[in-house]
Amino acid sequence: MSSSEDRVEVLVVGAGPAGLTLAIDLARRGVACHVVEATEERGVNPRCNTTSARSMEIFRRLGLADDIRRAGLPEDYPTSIQYRTTLSGEEIFRLDLPASRDVLDGVGKGGWPTPEPQHRISQLFLEPILEQHASTLPGLTLERGTRLVEFRQYDDHVEAVVETSGVRRTLHCAYVVGCDGAHSTVRRQLGIRYEGVDAIQQFVSTFVRSPELGRLAARDRAWTYWTYGRRIASLIAIDGDSLWLNHVAFAPDHDTEGEDPEELLREAVGGPVEHEVLGVVRWTGRRLVAQRYRTGRVFLAGDAAHIWIPVGGFGMNAGIQDAATLSWMLAAVRHGWAPPSLLDAYELERKPVGEQFASAVGSAARKSFAEFSPDIHLPGPDGERARAEFADRLAVSEPHRYSPDGFSFGYHYAGSPLVVGGEDQTAITMGDYLERAQPGFRLPHVWLDDDRSVLDVLGPGFTLLRTDTGVGVTSWTSAADELGIPLAVVDLPGRWPDRYPTELVLVRPDQHVAWMGGADARPDELLHTVTGRVAAHQQ
């Protein structure tokens, strides 16, 4: 008989951004969870360096957005992108983007489709913020230096064997979520394979400390400098001062072992620069999605479910979206207001998004790393002409990649059994989305009179937005009470008919629209559908 200390509601394997976001969200929803992380210390190499607008909205809901926005680059440091022959060479093209201070001050607020634009922050700085916040939440425990050894599934629980300093113990868990990365122990034990393209590109990534590089960049500051020497490289500002990451891309069949990181840095800068190498990683950019996201009581999220070439940080951000979706579903089942069958929707919603992201990311990568003319390095009119032609190409391919609002606001669950009225939608694209409420999509943002976003007034459970206060909602609240479903009712003045075109909009706990309609709705049937009690109605 196991002791009560060995019982866990949700075991989260992996303390990266997806695992920590899931654990924080579950704890805030009143579901106790235990996180195990095999490594004693956090990684020392920067990985993802962008937190998307949608991830920032999720962090806003969790009360973390401002802390995250104040970390990473200095508040006055521009998040711009420059394209240059070398760092010290000729400029080809640029995208001027705001500093975090501008966002905190609300500069340009009226024109943003979100209360939380994307933020440039390395995982080096993001993860400690998430971990520190996690440590303050009741019901959430985290063990570093503890690895999952194996697990066994039963009808009503999972037995997970974990090991700390050579000592093994068995945890009795209601659910297990593998957020343990590309080499996921959880995924392998489930016998689930990745499918897709195993090698899109090879990379050599060199993390350096170089005050001299900081001084060079200070002449015209940017967050990323794309350079076009012998190889295409991106030089990324990590702290806005002396910490830099140099990513250099090679063909998928290239042997990067022979590449000298020092020489690669000289090529990107356009000459020697004094520096200290903090880390070198040689790795393969892939486009892979797991065959399944779930077996029984065990789920996959983040890189354990999908990995792809890092174009714009979509891998980490998709993992954060996975967490936001899975969290409310697990909480609904644990609190008893939804049946276990609700959990079937997790894979049905997130796997198509993973596959569409993978396809679009692969397409973006091909454009970003496409061949360029060596004439851009020529002096005089020939070089100017070649750089101008290249700039025209970059002006088409790059803006959507660095402000990919389609990825933040255009992904959807329109085909989910938990969504009513979702029509067949086209594939997600890098830049396209509609600022109009649609079933399955994230609720579009507007600013309210009290300077809050509409996203800020949504309840932690379901929310019924009413744009016409003449429409009665008693039948809704009665049905929700009878079913035990948490439902908040929020009145919105009918000032945004183009954005919220129906009298009522039912919003899920993850801020996605579950249904839209009017006074002729049948609340009991709809609430049964959106909580997984019955198959979706086709309307």
Describe this structure in words.
- This protein has about 550 residues and is α/β, with parallel strands linked by helices.
- The protein is about 30% helix and about 25% strand.
- The chain contains 14 helices and 20 strands.
- The chain has helices spanning about 15-30, 55-60, 65-70, 100-105, 125-135, 185-190, 210-215, 260-270, 315-335, 345-370, 380-400, 405-410, 475-485, 525-530, and strands at about 5-15, 35, 80-85, 90-95, 140-145, 145-155, 160-165, 165-180, 195-210, 225-230, 230-235, 245-250, 275-290, 295, 300, 305-310, 460-465, 485-490, 505, 515.
- The strands form three sheets. Strands 1, 2, 5, 6, 7, 8, 14 and 15 form an eight-stranded mixed sheet that branches. An eight-stranded mixed sheet has the order 4-3-10-11-12-9-13-16.
- Strand 6 (about 145-155) and strand 7 form a beta hairpin.
- Helix 1 (about 15-30) runs parallel beside helix 5 (about 125-135) and helix 13 (about 475-485) packs across helix 14 (about 525-530).
- The radius of gyration is 24 Å and the shape is globular.
- The protein starts with 6 loop residues before the first strand and ends in a 9-residue tail after the last helix.
- About 45% of the residues are buried.
- The mean pLDDT is about 90.
